[in-house]
Amino acid sequence: MQKITMYCTAFCPYCVAADRLLKSRGVDTIDKIFIDKEPQLRDEMMSKTGRRTVPQIYIGETHVGGFDDLSALDKAGGLMPLLNN
Description:
The chain is an alpha+beta fold. The chain has helices at 13-24, 40-49, 67-75, 79-84; strands spanning 4-8, 31-34, 56-59, 62-65. It is globular and about 35 Å long.
């Protein structure tokens, strides 16, 4: 299974929803980068993704986007192939 990296904050409901969705698809470990604990990481996230909202999710080297993007990918049947690539 691909490595999952998620930029998030401690109290973000969309981050929690993304975590739940990924775990329901068999993901054991999510490397969480808490941008509220280390503010310079928000700049890193924005530089990498061009977005300022959380979560920002990477599956392997692929930037999936936020929770809405992750959910749409799952509904379209693209999440599992990406996770297992």
